[in-house]
Amino acid sequence: MQLPKVILNKILEWVLYSNLFIALCAAALVWETEILLGISAGVDAISTLVFFATLFLYGGHRMLSLQRIPDSNRNHQLKWSKKYQFAIFILTLLGGGMVASAVFHLNSFSSFLLLIPMGIISILYELPFIRFKGKYKRLRDIGIFKIAWITIVWSSITVLLPAFQYGEQVNGLEVITVFLMRAALIFSLGLSFDLRDVQYDEGSDLKTIPILYGRGKTIRLIIWSLVFYFIIAAIQFSTFQHFDFGKLASAAVTAMLAYRLIVAATVIDDWYYYPLFVDGIMILNFLLLQLDK
Q1: Domain that holds residue 248
Q2: Per-residue pLDDT tens over the stretch 106-137
Q3: Distance, first Cα to last Cα, the chain
Q4: Of 97, 193, 226, 267, which is the most exposed, with the fewest CB atoms less than 10 Å away?
Q5: Which of 285, 85, 291, 68 is nearest to 178 (CA)?
């Protein structure tokens, strides 16, 4: 009975810790946007670009973490990454090469303009370049703005990039509502990871929302974010899609499951739980919309 469990754990570690799963989550958000905007693209230049850019950035950040964090302070994920750092390195190179190739398949100049600031923020997120009180800090070290960077980049890349690529009017209300939905979802997921990382962030003197306001207020903020997500979804699916009950139901299921999974995550001490179930909400959302097509 132990052998299947060991094999399953090994598979989960490779899927989750190699960054392949989070890259698939990012691509799923692009596909979700394309469904919501009425675009039938499937596996296209944008989803390919976003998948491999995520693989490249997360791999690069992981390798920087291995250099910065001593062995004694490494968590389960970093210990695994240290053991298989050559594989992480190869996947990071693959991601970078595929991004360079996919960029040439973009057909909108606005897409290039969007990629520049989002790429800079993503790279500088883990690079210490800001000198403050004699120390160099990363973008993620600027206290409460940590979650803001994540929300802005993920929402912009997975909503505005496909909108630019396929000629949607980015200032149109339909795109704005999809952007607000995405931002609310990403914000709530980001808060859940900040809750998980409270002990680490306190040791790094990083003032995140859970550290500043406590667990209870943070969970209430997550609830209000998911309520906002559902309200915007109701506007989206009743105004622009002639009251699509199936899509509205999928948004309701996503919001309720996200709440249950996030709250459960705050009391579950399992390194597989967060990347698999909390991040997996992004894939779940896409799959629910696929069922409604």
Answers
A1: 2-292
A2: 888 888 899 999 988 888 887 777 766 667 77
A3: 40
A4: 267
A5: 285
